[in-house]
Amino acid sequence: MAVTTSPERDIVATPMQRATREALYAGAIALGLFVLFIGLRTDQNISNELILVQRWWLLAVVVVLTMAGRFLYVAYGQPFLANQKIVDVATGLLPESMATRFFRLPYFIAAIVIVAVLAFLAGSLDGLLGPGLAGYARFLRALAIIYALASVMFYFRTFIHAHFSALGITALALYPIIVVLVLALYGGSVAAGFQGSLKWVDNYGIQILIYVMLAWGLNIVVGLAGLLDLGYVAFYAVGAYAYALLGTQYGLSFWILLPAAGAMAAFWGVLLGFPVLRLRGDYLAIVTLAFGEIIRLVLINWREVTNGSAGITGIPKVTFFGLMTFNVSDPNYIAKVLDIATSSAYYKIFLYYLILGLCLLTAFVTIRLRRMPVGRAWEALREDEIACRSLGINTTTTKLTAFATGAMFGGFAGSFFAARQGFVSPESFIFLESAIILAIVVLGGMGSLVGIAVAAMVMIGGTEVLRELDFLKQVFGPDFTPELYRMLLFGMAMVIVMLWKPRGFVGSREPTAFLKERRAVSGSFTKEGHG
Amino acid sequence: MSDASPSVNDAILQVEHLSMKFGGLVAIGDLSFQARRGEITALIGPNGAGKTTVFNCITGFYKPSEGMLTLNRRDGSSYLLERLPNHEIPARAKVARTFQNIRLFSGMTLLENLLVAQHNKLMKASGYTILGLFGFSGYRTASAESIDLARHWLEKADLVDRADDPAGDLPYGAQRRLEIARAMCTGPELLCLDEPAAGLNPKESMALNALLMDIKDNTGTSILLIEHDMAVVMQISDHVVVLEYGRKISDGSPHAVRTDPRVIAAYLGVEDEDVETVLIEVGDEDVIEQLDTGPDATHGPGSSSSYFAGPVTDTVGHSEGERVTVSKGASKAGQVDARSGAARPASPAEAKPEKPSAAKSSTAKPAAKAPAKPKTPGDSNRGGGNE
């Protein structure tokens, strides 16, 4: 045995051997990577001296977890995935897919039971289990709810896939009503329902929809026309300041200033468009980035008009089309007119429907424009600018219209943002905002409205959800603040999604016209554009 | 189709004293020729002769250093192409073009490609987007008409079955046909084709000939084409212009050009001492067959004009213009002239434009008409030379 070496043994190691080896490699790499990040930490001691805190136990945990993960993946995960592709000789069928194994009726029933039991015990959990375990129990309940919902969605997946847009719009339209109803039932009174809905409608609903709208606006420039714009937030700022300044100085109504802000942003879009038309790709990106910074710096430094970094406060609220207001002191305050209890939730719910309407307007215009010559010219411009010119398309005006249309929606979103916050300052229009909006467009799949909406929900909703992970405090101790880690998790999620779907959630392109049947164009044929 | 009566508008395109210089490099030097209405004019020459540069000047991708490019439209209006902006040449002067390295909108379907080509017409119909956005009926009818026109050209190009597939998914030959169909959807009066047969197999090449003859006979669109495939050139063209190093060395009917020793010398790249031999062999079947089977390696189509002409770049796809380096005595046609100075006094290498072009076009015209009798693509074999 020691003398004879068979060549097969070197080539075909058993999964276990390979898993052990790769686990050791992974552990070594993790050790090398994290020894300074996790193993050591600088801190201040009580006399304000910088000291080195050693955290070898944490490092060991991380390394062991990495090794275990790699071991499990190579030993069990890879053979499992390989087997998924092998047809059973007896039946001639592929094995059940992972999803059908994961979503099964018994598991679904178990999840429902868990949710029911824990909901029934909701009030007395702390007493029964103690605060620590109760936290885990609540987390378990959340997981069970998510699993049950996912199971239902999986069961109706073909239906959902076929009617995704209609279902999505319906769900968005019903969202505040459902939130208020559920919370009213939970809290036992309508007032509690309205009060509790504030967070869900404002932090989640409105916040996400603003980004959906911004991303759909940027999608026209980046996704359709293929012009990489890193300064999109500038148009958002123009819209916001247009409403803030004209609203506070001249007392004009939101309903006049909304189109005015859009027009002003479009004007700035054209103004930016002219000098950058000759530029392509990286150069265009740099100039648009600079434009975004210029606008922000002007807002900071032009104190006489913009009040500098202090921003503009007291921006008037939106009125209910002039009929009712949302100011408690006004005689036509909504609660007085309708004779209902005073609550700040009405304004938020109204704003939610307002931004939902603006989003739908953006989507409608985008869909409509794509089927018109100008929209086709945008996409043709992304595919091949020289061919466009050879067909008599004026690429200058085509690019300008793309910039102007995208900027206009940015301006709409900006004026809405100002009305919602009641306060604007240059702080809100930093480069990171542009980057997030662009990330949403890329993550969703350039050009796809549905993909972008899902991406906005994942990115903005995801970071908000991470604020809720209080149970992690029980794991990592009371000093642990999950909010601080949300950007890290967010970055990791983006890397994973881009590895898994390099063209974004929806990589294919919907053709704008067809002779016989509408077939989506695979993302491998479409181009990203050269700026 | 236009009648054959000679008039000012008989020439759809007049190129006069065209020069294009890139720095010190003369890509085209004082080129003059005419393309007549309703005819297929072929522009041939060895690689690096400046053919694509001529195309880029005509279609506005380059502004010529000197010269005048006049396009006479059927309605009597004339356009100076060197003064029009790039995108107005297809829109107003009605000149459409295709590219040597195919430039389709690969992520859009075939139908969409042809609809983009009708952009200007549809923009007007949609009231520059505004009326169309609100769903006025004018745009809807125009849109339906544009789809009908697209369907018409898809049928002509034999691509209607794949109308809803992405253009990038088509095989190479079909992409060539689609590019021609897309150019035709702009409703051109002059169609400029840059090596339409490059990379096609014999069957596809025949289908292409049939398509081009069909365009010529049924739409009245005049065609100007660059081609290396002599079978295509000799079968379908009415008039051939030969370039070498940016200068015209021959101009006339396909038959006249084929027997021109200067052309043979330019294509075969003879050594100095072989010039006499070639001159003796002019008219010999062997030489003509060699000419038809393809140029040699030194001057024949190199890698740039191969089937997949390199990656699609951002710049206008021509590798030829910049590569031209005219050294004294490099022109093979010039060598032929020098050697046979006494025997063939006519047409010096640096052709004085007025006289030769006028003389040539007058002599070439009857010759051009004669072989232009419609050829059925079925009986054409690839030899092409033995007519």
Automatic annotation (TrEMBL), chain A:
The keyword Ion transport does not apply. It is found in: Cell membrane. It is a multi-pass membrane protein. The chain crosses the membrane at residues 23-40, 56-76, 105-124, 136-156, 163-186, 206-225, 230-246, 252-271, 283-302, 349-369, 400-418, 430-463. Keywords: Cell membrane, Membrane, Transmembrane, Transmembrane helix. InterPro entries: ABC_transp_permease, LivHM_N, LivM-like. CDD domains: TM_PBP1_LivM_like. The keyword Methyltransferase does not apply. Signal peptide: none annotated. This is Branched-chain amino acid transport system permease protein livM (TC 3.A.1.4.1). Residues 21-118 form the High-affinity branched-chain amino acid transport system permease LivHM N-terminal domain.
From TrEMBL, chain B:
GO terms for molecular function: ATP binding. PROSITE patterns: ABC_TRANSPORTER_2. Residues 291-387 are annotated as: Disordered. The keyword S-adenosyl-L-methionine does not apply. Gene3D superfamilies: P-loop containing nucleotide triphosphate hydrolases. Residues 13-270 form the ABC transporter domain. Keywords: Amino-acid transport, ATP-binding, Nucleotide-binding, Transport. The keyword Nucleotide-binding applies. Belongs to the ABC transporter superfamily. This is Branched-chain amino acid transport ATP-binding protein livG (TC 3.A.1.4.1).
